[in-house]
Amino acid sequence: QVHLVESGGGLVQPGGSLRLSCAASGSIFRISTLGWYRQAPGKQRELVATITSGGSTNYADSLKGRFTISRDNAKNTVNLQMNSLKPEDTAVYYCNLRRGPLDSWGQGTQVTVSS
Fold first, then answer.
1. What sign does the dihedral 9-82-72-105 (CA atoms) show?
2. Residue 1 reports pLDDT greater than 80
3. Phi, then psi, of 32 in degrees rounded to 5
4. Which long-range contacts (CB under 8 A, 24 or more apart) does 61-70 make?
5. CB 48 within 8 A of CB 60
6. If you average pLDDT over every residue of the chain, what do you get?
7. Spatial separation of the C-alpha atoms in residues 74 and 64, rounded to whole Å
8. Looking at residues 56-85, what average pLDDT do you find?
9. Residue 39 and residue 20 in contact, taking contact as beta carbons nearer than 8 Å
10. Buried b (16+ CB within 10 A) or exposed e, 69-92
11. How far is CA 25 from the centre of its chain?
12. CA 85 to CA 14: how far, in whole Å?
């Protein structure tokens, strides 16, 4: 079992930036695909970005150019840099780790974009 803990959420004004971090336990981290997903009120959870063990990234089309995912295998962390934030980015952001049948989720961190 992998334990994931997100941090870095909060309230930010439109146009601002936030950096989310997710710390993971276990040596499986560096051979796993990591991802960030989000869920807005009344909506389904959706992909934000993923990064493979080899460093290949994939982003939701609507977020390309504003969000950047990165990983630090030495620290067992995956980060999400979010720039030019918009009110529609308001959601709970979840960290995800996948390796074979293992599919682990963090508890989520709230991001609110509002003036």
1. positive
2. no
3. -110, 160
4. 69/34, 69/35, 69/36
5. yes
6. 96
7. 26
8. 96
9. no
10. bebeeeebbbbbebeebeeebbbb
11. 16
12. 5
DSSP the chain: ---EEEE--EEE-TT--EEEEEEE-SGGGGGSEEEEEEE-TTS--EEEEEE-TT--EEE-GGGTTTEEEEEETTTTEEEEEE-S--GGG-EEEEEEEEETTEEEE---EEEEE--
Tell me the per-residue pLDDT of 81-115, one tens digit each, with 9 for 90 and over: 999 999 999 999 999 999 999 999 999 999 999 99
- Parallel, antiparallel, or unpaired for β 109-113 and 10-12? parallel
CB 20 within 8 A of CB 106: no
Handedness of CA 70, 47, 4, 42 (dihedral sign): positive
pLDDT at 39: 98
